[in-house]
Every structure is written in structure tokens, then in C-alpha cells.
Amino acid sequence: MKKLYSSVFQTPLGLMIAMAEDNGLVLLEFYDRPALPTEEHELQKRYGYTILPGRTPHHDAIEREIAEYFACTLQEFTVPLITPGTSFQLRVWNALRQVPYGTTASYGELAIAAGTTMGASRAVGAANGQNRLAVVIPCHRVIGADGSLTGYGGGKHRKEALLRLERATRFDGPPAEQALLFPE
């Protein structure tokens, strides 16, 4: 049985839960994500993890990197990732990692980047929604073909805030006041 250590930490957008094994980060989600119990169940039943409270050096790394991300001083995460999934999911998640900071891509564009056709948008959307590494594998950067904000497992308000943070940093430099990016 593989051990997966779990801990919770605070961010400007609410509590996040991080789960890591000895070799890297396996899950990073907003604690109130409705799909979190399903993700935990899949990690246990499909991938053979036992989830325990605890920490690894990867927890320290992701907490530091998430703090730097929200402080607008980090645009690329370096924490090692473990991404159990199907070959299709892995292709989609790798394509997601290629969407540049501060930009967006449509589901159709992501489908093409993942080596499928524009018609695979729904399948790509499903794989996007099954990403267990919020913010790090930037599924928040995927929008509708018409430019509309589509669903986000962490909530639409968080998707808007993450995109606002990245756009402000990319085009205007680090903002002086985070309160402008994360209004109460």
C-alpha cells in the first residue's frame, strides 16, 4: 500500500488540501471542492493509496510556492508532481501545463494541443475537470470558445480571481494591493 500524506493550509482564496507521497505532490484542491471525496476514493481504490494525516517535504514546497504564486512572485511551479491517470488524461494535463501564465485557451484549443480534434472538446473538458492539482496544473485557464468562463471545480469566483491575478501580474507587474485582486 502506498502512503499518501494529507495536510490543509490557508490561501487568499480559502483552505487548500495537499496530498503527497514520498516522490511528489499527488493532489492539491480547494478544501470545499464538491468532487474532493470522489478524488480521494479514486486515489484509494484505483491507485492503491492509503491516505494518512501528515507531511512530506513536498507539502512545505507547495505551501511556499502557492504563497509565492498569490504574492505574484511565482509563475511556474517546481514541486515534483505525481499524476495517476489514463493516457488521455495525462495528454490533456500536459497540454494544460503548456497554457502560458496570464493567458487562456478554449476547450477546442486544448483538444488540439492534446493531440485530438476540436470535436473532442467534451472529453477534454471531462479530463480537465478530473485534474487533481488545482492551480499547479492550470485548469482555471480553460474557457469557452466564446470567451466565457466555464465551470471550475473550485468555484467560478476562484477561477475569476486566479485569472485576474495572473492577468494583472503579466500585464501590469505585481499588484501593490492583493485586496484589489481578492475582494471580500
Automatic annotation (TrEMBL):
GO terms for molecular function: methylated-DNA-[protein]-cysteine S-methyltransferase activity. It catalyses: a 6-O-methyl-2'-deoxyguanosine in DNA + L-cysteinyl-[protein] = S-methyl-L-cysteinyl-[protein] + a 2'-deoxyguanosine in DNA; a 4-O-methyl-thymidine in DNA + L-cysteinyl-[protein] = a thymidine in DNA + S-methyl-L-cysteinyl-[protein]. Its main location: cytoplasm. The keyword Signal does not apply. GO terms for cellular component: cytoplasm. Keywords: Cytoplasm, DNA damage, DNA repair, Methyltransferase, Transferase. GO terms for biological process: DNA alkylation repair; methylation. Involved in the cellular defense against the biological effects of O6-methylguanine (O6-MeG) and O4-methylthymine (O4-MeT) in DNA. Repairs the methylated nucleobase in DNA by stoichiometrically transferring the methyl group to a cysteine residue in the enzyme. This is a suicide reaction: the enzyme is irreversibly inactivated. PANTHER family: METHYLATED-DNA--PROTEIN-CYSTEINE METHYLTRANSFERASE (PTHR10815). This enzyme catalyzes only one turnover and therefore is not strictly catalytic. According to one definition, an enzyme is a biocatalyst that acts repeatedly and over many reaction cycles. This is Methylated-DNA--protein-cysteine methyltransferase. The lineage of its organism: Bacteria, Pseudomonadati, Acidobacteriota, Terriglobia, Terriglobales.
